[in-house]
Every structure is written in structure tokens, then in C-alpha cells.
Amino acid sequence: MGTKKKAYLSAIIDLHDGSIASYELGHSNNQFVFKTIRKAIQTLKPDEHPLVHSDRGFQYTSKKYKEIIDEAQ
């Protein structure tokens, strides 16, 4: 039997080839979103500057998310 907790998936998909760049599963929809983008940033090559598109949910419009994106340039 499973638990009655909600499970959340945060995934970053490369729209060029459809591959999953990074993903995280969690029971809270806050911190794991930040983990997902950090993991994706770590896979970038120095000359890559991807465009990030989201559903504009509160995590993706938060100050913390913007700081992560700005830091990665």
C-alpha cells in the first residue's frame, strides 16, 4: 500500500531533443524545484545559455529562484 502524501515532480526538459535535463521528486513543492534547476545548471557547458520556461507558479516567480537563475547567468 502507498502513502496518502502528495508527490510532486519537478522536471526540466530539453526541448531540442526531448531529453530530461534534470528532475526531482518530493513531498513539498518548494525546495525540490530549486534542486532541479541547480542540477540542470550543473550539466551546462560553459558556452551554453539556455532559455528557461515555466508555468509561472509561485516557486518559479520567487526571489530565490530568480537568484539561482541570475547567479548562473
From TrEMBL:
Pfam family, one: rve
One example of a Gene Ontology biological process annotation: DNA integration
Protein name stated in the entry: Integrase catalytic domain-containing protein
Domain Integrase catalytic: 4-71
GO MF annotation terms: nucleic acid binding
SUPFAM superfamilies membership: Ribonuclease H-like
Membrane-spanning residues: none
Coiled-coil ranges from the UniProt annotation: none
Organism: Ureibacillus thermophilus
